[in-house]
Design goal:
Layout lengths: L1 E2 L10 H4 L1 E9 L12 H16 L6 H14 L6 E3 L1 H12 L1 E4 L2 E6 L2 E7 L4 H5 L6 E5 L2 E2 L7 H8 L6 E7 L7 E6 L1 E4 L3 E6 L4 E6 L6 H14 L4 E5 L5 E3 H9 L7 E7 L4 E5 L10 E6 L6 H11 L4 E4 L7 E7 L5 E10 L14 H5 L1 H8 L15 E3 L5 E3 L8 E2 L9 H8 L2 H12 L9 H7 L4 H14 L10 H16 L4 H6 L4 H10 L3
Parallel strand pairs: 1-5, 2-15, 2-20, 13-14, 14-18, 18-19, 19-24
Antiparallel strand pairs: 3-21, 4-11, 5-6, 6-7, 7-8, 7-9, 9-10, 12-13, 16-17, 16-21, 20-21, 22-23
Amino acid sequence: MLSKKKYLPLIIGVAVATGVFVGGKLNFSDSSDRLFTSNSKKDKLNRLIDFIDFEYVDDVNTDSIVDVTVNGILNNLDPHSVYIPKEQLESSTENMKGNFVGIGVSFYTYKDTIAVIRPIENGPSEKAGIKSGDRIIMANNDTLLGNKLKDGEIVKKLKGTLNSKVNLKIYRKGEPELINFTVKRSNIPIKSVDASYMLTEKLGYIKVNRFAESTYKEFKKGLDKLQNLGATEIALDLRDNPGGFLSIAEQMVDEFLEDDKLILFTKNKRGKIEKSFATDEGDFEKGNIYVLINENSASASEIVAGALQDNDKGTIVGRRSYGKGLVQREMDLGDGSAVRLTVSRYYTPTGRSIQRPYDKGNKDYYDEYFDRLNSGELLDAEKIEVADSLKFTTPKGKVVYGGGGIIPDVFVPIDNSMHNETLSYLQRRGFIAYFVFEELEKDRSIYSNFSKRDFIDNFKITDDFVLKFQEYLNIRTTSQITFVAYHDEVKQYLKATLADQLFGNGAFEEIFNQRDIMIDEVIKLSDGE
């Protein structure tokens, strides 16, 4: 089961929780005696917490004290060493694993019911016969009606163990009675490859949203598909990708680099260096590659871009990336919570660290986006600040810089037309998606004769449809919103959202990208312009 949300704000707070991880987890039971032996510093904390627990005049939740203490310790380290409370760890782990056990539907909590946007293709709900627009009223005799249930509680009622069954009662428009369905829960993928399709006869496009355990398999499937369609060049879109597993980034780079090329190296506090090299497994070593990055492309995304740039492979297109060159390892704390601790730094093949400074504290570190915005860097490549002391040279003589992100080979400014504040707000708050869902609910048969390809190529959003959306907003918001200045952009959002709810499988990206100036630039580069 998936709750549908698209396009988070530009500021990438998720990079704190995602980052780039080494392959394994560190558990107390796995650790050496030397690492966790008693000492006076640890005893001091333990004695203080016990003293409060047993002697303090009022009742105190010592669990909350421990949480505050852990956060306080980590806040004195680096911005990417983080504490993950028990209630957040499960969803975080699922996101990075790339799947969960559920019934396989995208849904809204719509008014007072669970409304199915679309069953996941080939998932258990689709196989059982559940359709878009169905309302899930009950699950195993638990009522799901009412405004009191939160998304998290709904998810728990629909999740379960693998191959277990859940009995659902469904309301379907036009049916006189509730319909009973029995759905066998299965592994539901959380897609990390949003889209893979051909931009031109020779240029394929792949959009990757994170580096989870399942990402490489998804990516390889998309790459193979594009090669079979004739792609000799690939546009790899890593914009807004906050990172993930180090090993997955290495596998992805290996598809493009020749044998024995250095991908990256890491160095820990004891100076131990570990190097990663490309193997003979790559299937796209001869093809040309364009990597799309922006200010929200972080860690594992930067590993891919840096490895290719430093090996003079392909072209990096976009804006300076986030600037995270630290590697974390997760440690289970024994109570369902965990810590992700920075254990090493990584370096690109030329030896540069792209970690930006964090010596002024976490607030300044995360506010740097606004510094970039205010300096004009997102609009003008000349505004990017570089230090000569951090200058490096690739084997073919190209100058690259460390010290704060990957600077692209070809700069593309931020597009304020498709990413203006009003449209981003409406998309983020779900106004566009809810409006589209309500319009579909009026009569889904209007779109029944469209295939995905036919819809993308030929369907037109009318001016009346835009006017309906404006009237919808005027009823539901306090401010009067007009679309005179960006009428065509609104049509693009509406059409892309319609396609997503009707077809999924990258339809949103394929339509939305038609007005994307960075993709236009990649097509021009591919055509030799």
